[in-house]
Design goal:
Blueprint (H helix, E strand, L loop, with lengths): L14 H11 L4 E5 L6 H9 L3 E4 L4 H6 L2 H15 L4 E5 L1 H5 L5 H7 L5 E4 L9 H13 L5 H21 L15 H13 L4 E6 L5 H17 L6 E5 L8 H16 L6 E2 L9 H13 L4 E6 L13 E6 L5 H7 L3 E4 L3 H4 L10 H14 L2
Parallel strand pairs: 1-2, 1-3, 3-4, 5-6, 5-8, 6-7, 8-9, 9-10
């Protein structure tokens, strides 16, 4: 089901928040939200952990009626004086959209000698990827990214939207949130598969910074395989090509690659960049068909629903996601075991090294118990 005409009842990600995270990936120093003080509060706070300052024009009832052009231009001047930024982003909100206030005029009023990415956005778009696209188009207009990268990103955003409509948060009218299967039960299953000499593939298909925790799952599987003397039975795939993506995204790939190398884990197949999670399925399918069609199980982390089921035919599938509403769609796809890393996102902001996952920690402990160590 593509979900094109569905009236989706459960809350979904906001285009405003998507714009903020995209500004973060462009290494903006300060992002200004032009709207009420509480708009996107939680994500603004989380982004501050990731090194970007987020401030607001704090529009009130008076601003809703008469606009906030002066408030925004004054705040632009103030943040320029206070933080000495090299790049600023200004993000619209539902309030600024409803009153019809354009961002360009107050930016011109401020007359700064710093590039400003103007993001005319609100939360009313059916797909949150619209906030990313608007941000990138504005970044191109001020010369922050080139035409080639903009076109590449457009392809990825289109595919990301389709992935969610096929088997993700936009695939059903209502998705019940779930914590998925019990982690220690799934960990026991993984250890048994390795003990029996089954051959497995770890596929990390992570979205940007979430890879700092999803990489730990792959590392834990390899540690257990090594302890069992079965390390030759595990092949690792990961979307950690550090030559692709916006500046912050390439940085994540470099950091994760360095950490995995330090742990002695070999990534046998690079399946794309850390923003290419919606299109890695094609590469994974080709690799399995060419080299790994006789493997017995796959452990997929990040965005498992982007990997076509045809590629995994005959394998026992264990999926690790951070989306509680993703459990049911994955089960319906045919993934036998699905678990959720519920606190992943706040734990992977502002870090530069792999963060231990709940499933990774559980797998390590279960292996110790089952091996009597």
């Amino acid at each position: 089901m593509m979900g094109k005409n569905l009236s989706i009842m459960h809350p979904r990600p906001s285009s405003i928040v998507a714009a903020l995270y995209t500004l973060r990936d462009l290494n903006v120093d300060v992002a200004i939200l032009h709207g009420p003080p509480g708009c996107s509060f939680k994500h603004a706070r989380l982004l501050e952990e990731d090194g970007i300052r987020v401030v607001t024009t704090a529009l009130d009832e008076n601003g809703f009626v008469f606009g906030g052009r002066q408030e925004l231009s004054s705040l632009l001047v103030k943040v320029n004086e206070m933080f000495k930024p090299k790049l600023i982003g200004v993000v619209g909100t539902c309030a600024s959209m409803i009153i019809g206030e354009e961002l360009h005029e107050p930016v011109e009023d401020a007359n700064l000698d710093v590039p400003v990415i103007e993001v005319e956005v609100h939360a009313g778009y059916p797909d949150n990827t619209k906030g990313v696209l608007i941000t990138l188009e504005s970044a191109f207009e001020v010369g922050v990214i080139g035409k080639e990268e903009l076109e590449r990103q457009k392809v990825l955003l289109r595919e990301a939207t389709l992935v969610e409509k096929r088997h993700g948060a936009a695939s059903k009218e209502y998705l019940e949130p779930s914590r998925g299967d019990v982690k220690y039960k799934v960990a026991e299953k993984v250890v048994r598969l390795l003990q029996e000499g089954k051959k497995g593939i770890t596929i990390m298909n992570a979205k940007k910074e979430t890879g700092y925790m999803f990489a730990d799952v792959s590392a834990a599987v390899n540690e257990v395989a090594l302890a069992l003397g079965k390390e030759g039975n595990v092949v690792n795939m990961a979307n950690i090509d550090d030559s692709l993506g916006l500046p912050r995204v390439r940085h994540h790939a470099k950091c994760i690659t360095a950490d995995l190398q330090e742990r002695g884990m070999i990534v046998h197949e690079i399946i794309g960049g850390m923003d290419e999670y919606p299109i890695t399925g094609t590469k994974v399918s080709e690799l399995i068909k060419q080299k790994y069609s006789d493997y017995d199980f796959a452990i997929i982390t990040g965005v498992p629903h982007a990997i076509p089921m045809e590629a995994l035919e005959g394998m026992e599938i264990i999926s690790v996601t951070n989306g509680p509403r993703q459990v049911l769609p994955l089960k319906e796809m045919g993934h036998q075991h699905v678990i959720v890393e519920i606190d992943l996102h706040p734990k992977t902001l502002g870090v530069n090294h792999i963060v231990e996952s709940e499933f990774g920690a559980t797998l390590r402990e279960v292996a110790k118990d089952m091996l009597g160590r």
